[in-house]
Design goal:
Length: 256
């Protein structure tokens, strides 16, 4: 499995929010780099043309006013593109990127997000004629309104199904995901908005590390069934720095 990462993602000066907090990514990189099965690869920033498939010129100019934010948000979107390309080529990929993206809509953003990483990456593959459909599993605590706003209405010929599970118990949560995947057909690629703030030791107090392992495994099993295993996942939320590495590692164990 590939891990997308760039040392510039450690920079925490681009914003004052919990996603930008210093030290948030270090533990994730530490734990994943101990696994010799994981190959780290470094992304390039997304170019403006890639970003404008998901966003308005006005939104791009708004981000551009802060050069550091533009650099890092473009690098996160570039990390998403690299992960999508790897997945398309048959390599399952997890992207340890920051800032997150699922609350970024075409012309606005909130919730610690700036560019919609998932949308930029999927729309690039779509524009190159590589995919015509996608399934997005957003298991972040918060609903990815940006994913929904952009991907549900973007192109008539690009079909995107998005699941934000909302079961209140952990067993029901996993079952909800499995049941939804069971009904899927004609999907060209699987992607996860992988937020870990639903963790038992994080804001949502719901999912245990074993549950993240199960979510990863479901992504693997159903992508193998439906689209030759093409799958990738992008880091979204997750704010307990002690719990985050373990949860990411568990997800990757099932997902790889
Ligand atoms: Zn969240």
């Amino acid at each position: 499995m590939k891990i997308v990462f760039h040392k510039r993602y450690y920079n925490s000066s681009y914003a004052m929010d919990p996603a930008a907090a210093p030290g948030r990514l270090e533990g994730i990189v530490d734990i994943l780099s101990k696994n010799k099965e994981y190959v780290f690869i470094e992304p390039k920033p997304a170019i403006k043309e890639d970003i404008l498939r998901a966003h308005t010129e006005r939104h791009f100019e708004y981000i551009e006013r802060n050069p550091l934010l533009l650099e890092l948000a473009s690098l996160a979107a570039g990390g998403a593109i690299l992960a999508a390309e790897e997945a398309y080529d048959g390599n399952p990929t997890f992207a340890v990127i920051r800032p997150p993206g699922h609350h970024a809509s075409a012309d606005s953003c909130w919730g610690f997000c700036y560019f919609n990483n998932i949308s930029v990456s999927l729309l690039k593959l779509f524009s190159e004629g590589k995919i015509k459909s996608a399934f997005v599993l957003d298991f972040d605590l918060h609903t990815g309104d940006g994913n929904i706003n952009i991907l549900s209405f973007k192109e008539e010929s690009f079909r995107v199904k998005i699941l934000n599970p909302d079961s209140s118990g952990r067993t029901g949560y996993i079952k909800e995901v499995k049941n939804y995947m069971e009904e899927l057909d004609n999907i060209d690629i699987f992607v996860a908005s992988a937020g870990f703030d639903q963790g038992i030791d994080d804001w949502g107090h719901l999912l245990y590390p074993e549950d993240y392992d199960d979510l990863g495994l479901l992504m693997k099993e159903y992508s193998e069934k439906l689209c030759e295993g093409r799958r990738y996942a992008l880091l979204e939320g997750g704010y307990n720095h002690d719990a985050l590495p373990k949860n990411v590692n568990s997800f990757c164990t099932g997902f790889k």
